[in-house]
Structures are given as C-alpha cells and as structure tokens.
Amino acid sequence: MEKIEEPVLPPKKQLPTLIVRPLGNNKIRSSIELKLMLEKFIKPRLIGVKITALRKSLNNGVIIQVETEDMANKLLNAINEHQEAKFLCLAKRPAARHPQILIYDIEKCEGSRGEIEKLFISKIRESNNLPEGDIKVLLKKKVKGSLEHWVLSMDPAIFKEIKDLKWLCCDIEPLRCFNCHRFGHQKKNCDITKPQCQRCTKTHGQDQCDRKYPVCRN
Questions:
Q1: Which residues form the CCHC-type domain (predicted)?
Q2: Which of 49, 100, 123, 130 could be cross-linked to 71 through a Cys-Cys bond (beta carbons 3.0 to 4.6 Å apart)?
C-alpha cells in the first residue's frame, strides 16, 4: 500500500510592520483618532504602498502591516516627514524581540531592586561563562511564601549558549538571616530577640566576642 505523505505547510510570512503613536503634546486621545488623522494626511497608493492590516495598539497607537520592506520604509518616511503629521505622531519599526527564559523559585531579598537584579545576573554570567550581551529582568511573579519566578530577556547569542548547555547554573548564596546568622530565612522573619554573635554560638554582640576563630551556627 502506497504511503501518502501529509503536505507540509510553509511557515507564515512575517510582514513588515510599523508602530505609530501620538506624541505627548497633542490632543489625539484614541487609536481611532490617530487612524483618521493618518488617512487625512497620508495617501499610501500615491507613494506605492499597499497596507495589508491596521489594528489598535497600546497608548492610543496603531500597528500597520505592509507587503514589503521597501513599502515600510516609504510609509515611515512619509509619516515622519509630513509637514503636519510629524508634529502629531511618530512612526517607527518595532524593536526585535529577544529570547526569554523563566527561572523558578528565587528567594525574594531585601534591598535595592536594581542592585539585587544586577548581582543575580552577574552570578549567572560568572557561573556559566556566558558570552557578552544584554540580560535583563522583564518581570517577577510572586509564588508561594517568599519565592518568585523571574522572566529574563537576553541577546540571542546568550540564549543559544544556554540552550546548547541544556541547563543553567545559578551559583547564588543561600538565604541567610543577619540577626541570628542562620540559613533558611531573613532577618524580618526571625523570631530571635536576643543579640547573636556572628563569630560563635553565644548570645552577645560580636564586639564582645573573644574567640580567635569563628564557629558556624549552622
């Protein structure tokens, strides 16, 4: 019996796109108003542009798709160089979307958000010998207790390196309390009220300790 192969559909073509948003110093209050303004000033057919789709975007903007890169450039220049439209809106090409990864169960820490994220990213770089490039935290999602899931965006070269490794080492120091000096919780959640020495297991301040060598409380 002859085997019938299923047809393989070609990938959907990604059409060139423009994002147009109103400038902050005008009275355009909706995507509809922006669309009407563009229709008034810009005549795509006269500049050889065929629009395939137009839809609403954030911040009262519109997203416009055209058939070719040349058409996208023509339309962008027509909008941004128009004697009236250039004072009312700005057209630009969308930024390339970088790959993202999700890291689970990161313990929430006290302190500056920027400094905490910077330290975390530097630890990931050092632990995995990653190539140069941009890594940034896009968002954090709170889960059980004091844990968070982090979404990281990164340059494609870094993402490829992690994908090839098939794992990611996060050489992060364990959670530590700076009140009782034990691991597993933070100072704000500590129920110890008496001063705890950082060098030994006794209940006195570190400046009163006479031990020559420190002793771990854990």
A1: 176-190
A2: 49
